[in-house]
Amino acid sequence: MKRYKNKHMKKNSIIALLIAMVAMSAQAQLLYKISGKGLTKPSYIIGTYHLADVKFVDSIPGLKKAMDETTQVYGELDMSDMMSPENLMKMQAAMMLPEGQTLQGLLKADQLERLNAGLKKIMGMDMSNPMISGQLGKMKPAALSTQLSVLLFMQKHQGTFDPQNLFDQYFQKQALAAGKQVGGLETIDTQMKVLFDMQTLERQTETLMCFIDNMDYYEKMAEEISKAFYLQNIESIDKTMNEKLNNSCDNRPEETDALIANRNADWFAKMPAIMQEAPTFFAVGAGHLPGEKGVLALLKKAGYKVEGMK
Question: Quick check: pTM over 0.85?
Answer without folding.
Answer: yes
